[in-house]
Amino acid sequence: MVDTPSLKPQVFFVLGGPGSGKGTQCAKMVEKYGFAHLSAGDLLREERDSGSETAALINQCIVEGKIVPVEITCQLLKKGMEKQGWAAKRFLIDGFPRNQDNYDGWSKVIGDSVDVPFILFMDADEDTMIARIIERSKTSGRNDDNIESLKKRFATFRNETMPIVDLYETMGKCRKINGLRGIEEVFADLETVFAGFI
């Protein structure tokens, strides 16, 4: 039997700088429309705390604001998708692909076994994102929610992730959302963008 796109899981990558609202909006899509949500960062933080052989390497990358080797991230994403039930699912994957290496690694590991209709880019300025993260840091317990790590994370985002957003834009597969407004206003935009998929 030939695989048709409609039988493949649909994956929507959700990109945006730290604090742009990726996790918040993904949670709302899960709650209202039953999407499966995988956060590359959350999966990496779980693995880092698992005591596995890759834990120390992952922790070092996170603290330094660097990107974790793509093989590790792709395997964790694949495992996460399989755990949630691979077939006929709609997945929101936030914080991935973060650079060209991630993009190439995804193509190699997952490739055509999924359909990627478009990526979602949560657009927000750095000042707003920093203010949100400083607020979040009061309760998040994350060791990368501090100004030093943030500066590195923003530099990585500008230099490595934005070219991926631009790449999807040239393919006509990027949907830009203004992440600066209130949660409900942003969510209304998401509902419009996902109209054919919800």
From TrEMBL:
Keywords: ATP-binding, Cytoplasm, Kinase, Nucleotide-binding, Nucleus, Pyrimidine biosynthesis, Transferase. InterPro entries: Adenylat/UMP-CMP_kin, Adenylat_kinase_CS, P-loop_NTPase, UMP_CMP_kinase. Gene3D superfamilies: P-loop containing nucleotide triphosphate hydrolases. It is an enzyme of class 2 (transferase). The keyword Cytoplasm applies. It catalyses: CMP + ATP = CDP + ADP; dCMP + ATP = dCDP + ADP; UMP + ATP = UDP + ADP. Catalyzes the phosphorylation of pyrimidine nucleoside monophosphates at the expense of ATP. Plays an important role in de novo pyrimidine nucleotide biosynthesis. Has preference for UMP and CMP as phosphate acceptors. Consists of three domains, a large central CORE domain and two small peripheral domains, NMPbind and LID, which undergo movements during catalysis. The LID domain closes over the site of phosphoryl transfer upon ATP binding. Assembling and dissambling the active center during each catalytic cycle provides an effective means to prevent ATP hydrolysis. Belongs to the adenylate kinase family. UMP-CMP kinase subfamily. This is UMP-CMP kinase. It comes from Halteria grandinella.
